[in-house]
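Why this split exists: single-chain examples teach little about how molecules sit against one another. For that reason, every record in the complexes split bundles all components of an assembly together and asks for one structure covering all of them. Below is a record exactly as it appears in the raw files.
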Amino acid sequence: MKRVAVLIQPLLALVAAFVLTTLALLSTGVSPLEAYRLIIFGAFSTPVRLSDMIMLAAPLLLCAVGLSITFTGGLYNLGVEGQMIIGAIAAMVPLRLWPDWPPLLLWLMAALSGAVGGALWALLIGVLRRYAGVSEIFAGLGMNFLAGGLALYMVLGPWRRQTSASLSGTDLLPRELWLPTIDRLRLAPAAPVIAVLALAIVWWALTQTRWGLEVRAVGLNPAASERLGIATARRMAETLAACGALAGIAGMLQVVAVHHALIPNISSGIGLLGLLVALLSRADPRWLLPIVVAFAAFTVGSIQLPLTLGIDSAIAGVLQGALVLFALATRARQ
Amino acid sequence: MDQLWIDIAAILAVAAPLVIAAMGETLSERAGVINLSLDGTMLLAAMTGFAVALNTQNLILGFAAAALVGALVAAILGVFSLTLGQSQTAVGFVLALLCTDLSSFLGAPFVRLPGPAVPFMPIPGLADLPVFGQILFRHDPVIYASFLLVPATAYLLYGTRLGLIVRALGERPAAVYARGIDVTRWRYAMLILGGALVGIAGAAFSLDLKQGWSYRHTFGSGWIVLAIVIFGGWRPLRVALGCYLFAALEIVATRSQSTLPGIPSQIIQVAPFVLMILVLALVNLASSPTVARWIATLPSVLQRPLLVVVYRLRATAPAALGQPFERP
């Protein structure tokens, strides 16, 4: 009976999510089948869309992997979006200061600077939580808006285009500083490789090391962990810093591999989507990659909806949110 | 002087949706349930209220639809957290994102359409009073409702038997259970009532303050309201005060943008959220023993006024807030 339930419950969640999404689609008068064909298979229809999907999946996987660390440690790091933005801004610094240095060195510096920027931004949440008692939820959210304002300020202020300040972003980076990209595909193979590597390392650290064991203990019962001699506050800070660093690298990829500039909406909601992925996977690293690919495919597939069917692309978010919501219902009581 | 009274009246008007939503959230949090979906709920309710009012040309139906949406989202949160025992934080957050996207998707045909709006309705006689007339009695019905809602919420919580039950639900649900009252059922009731108010607050944006619908046009107000409830220490009068202070700062910020063009507008846009973090830190530090010890080391002339400030700022969350209730 229990085995059957394990199979049936996710199926029920899937059905419920599609029922809700279908109702929303029906209300607009378009054919749901036609819409689903685009949402689910659209990302796989042409090589360009497939590479767009991969280029979205890479930063999404980095954020989701980072968040699976903080979730394991029992924290809701809603600030991941801001950590990504700060990572992107920090990554721009070496690229703008020394554009004629060797590209490989600059990429490494951008990655390092993005990771440090994201980690420090995340640690600020830890500081606010520990020393000022501000819940990480409000600290994170507030700092997301702050980081977004900072990106907008950089784009319109100090880093504005030479011709005239534009909301569309800073001047493009010199071509040789773009992460090597396959022509006409907009695919930079290094991005997915970095993301999968991060997944492997984090999976190893969380399941195979003493550090991972302590983080899991802190997540399950911080009071008991403290009495057992685990440095609880320190572990929490480390999970935040690790997540921030990964989100910062995701932001750096957005700059050197996707937009090739800093744009105001550099994080594009990828961090928040990563939170949905982390919730759906229950921070289980084995589920991260398939969910990330599916969610990235929904988002990229739905981009064509306004042009072909005249409906808003936010339906991808409805489907993703509904999947996570109904999946939560099938979990054991807390 | 006249300009000052007009400014104060503007603050009261801008704060109206915040006050309505904050009273709703205060009610459900006092009963022990955090409705973290506020921002998404307000957007979905704002969109629905506008669409219904536009199609029926009936404002009352628009507000009713918005209240229904708010109540429905709250009921869904109730099913997942109170009945199925999932984390209120996780479910509320997912609902916030889901409702935001639903509002963008379903609201796409209504973006920037002209539509009906709540009419200006000065109260005959009272509106001509000096000062008070200008501040209090030259508004529209939604704003009058927001004035009445604050004492009504305070009376409900502190003046009635129901309020006693609600407060006990948030502080010590086991005691309520022992009195033979169904904890889960009453938590549902307060959550749904609060949700309906949050929905009405959404419609107060789209049918009154902003008069129309566009993507994400409440710009994070839901999150701000959640923080204001904490700043207000879960007490209706102080929560309302928080809303008015916040609206006042917003108006000052908009003014300073035109008088001090040196400040980049991006900074003014994110200022509310920085303020939110600082205020939460301040409220929490006021309750911390470290600060009390630090004050004790100061010269005694300073101690008294500082202690008064710290005491005023203190806020204690309902003890069982966010905790699931298991029957003993």
